[in-house]
Amino acid sequence: MTEEQPLDSFSPKGPLEQRWTQHKYNLRVVSPANRKRYRVIVVGTGLAGASAAASLAEMGYQVKTFCYQDSPRRAHSIAAQGGINAAKNYHNDGDSVWRLFYDMIKGGDFRARESNVFRLAELSTSIIDQAVAQGVPFAREYSGYLANRSFGGAQVSRTFYARGQTGQQLLLGAYQAMSRQVAEGHIEHFSRCEM
User: Which residues, in sequence order, are CB contacts of 5 under 8 Å at separation 6+?
Assistant: First the structure.
């Protein structure tokens, strides 16, 4: 018989609101001059993989991406058509990072790791800004501001959308950013690869 090891999620310790901030503070920093000496492997080039690969390559790391399909544009992220949520509180209807966190935890039937979901809620506004910078054509108000709506039973308007094809547009934006880094030689991409 072997002893059972306690279940550990390896998420940062401490108060929920400060876990990732404290974890980032405690990490070692890589100098921009040394980043080119590191190689990063990204498996999967959907929304998360393509965005991460493009961002890391822009920061100076040497990145290798591996994709199961013939092109990153065929990732399943294309199916996410409703929109993407962020706690920007444009309509001044009381939205906040904490409210978005609670709605995501509740919507996932309380099965998610709270610290990771809180971090996602914290970064949600930056994710929208990154997608806009990558050229995603979000719907706009007449004044030019990003349009958002209440979606999926949320009590607040926090869903940013690109007509009925949000997933496709987000994926194309991430793919464009990644393709630019491939052309510059910072990313080496491998299609039709299994891991």
Answer: none
